[in-house]
Specification:
The protein has about 130 residues and is mainly α. It is built from 7 helices and no strands. It starts with a helix and ends in a 9-residue tail after the last helix.
């Protein structure tokens, strides 16, 4: 499974529990997965609410996951080392140096959040 696929699975795999907090998110994620059609995009607020639910449930409220790709990956219990971030950068077609710089990490976080919103809980074929 791709790194991005692992991120999607870690977040949207908890959709039923997060649905208590985010009205409509569960049905959007479920429809995207089972509908066979194009996934329904989600708002940033919906995605962030699902991630915040994970932070609340795991007690990791101190992670700066809204800005840090490393903290987001740690929160989701994924490997956040440089090799994992390099692989994620390659999956997402990052063209800069794969050196773990602040520039790379900020780009990764921004694009991951955009892809999560666009995908509605489904890993696009291009990122599988």
């Amino acid at each position: 499974m791709s790194i991005f696929g692992s991120i999607v699975s870690a977040i949207f795999g908890t959709a039923k529990a997060a649905g208590e907090v985010v009205s409509g998110t569960v049905s959007a994620a479920t429809a995207a997965v089972s509908g066979g059609g194009k996934p329904k995009p989600m708002s940033r607020e919906e995605v962030e609410a699902m991630i915040q639910k994970i932070a609340n449930d795991t007690g990791h409220k101190d992670y700066n996951w809204k800005q840090s790709i490393v903290d987001l990956m740690k929160l989701l219990n994924l490997d956040s080392n440089l090799n994992a971030r390099k692989q994620l950068a390659q999956e997402l077609s990052y063209t800069g140096a794969l050196d773990g710089s602040a520039q790379m990490n900020v780009w990764l976080h921004q694009l991951v959040m955009v892809k999560l919103m666009e995908s509605g809980g489904v890993v696009p074929d291009s990122l599988k």
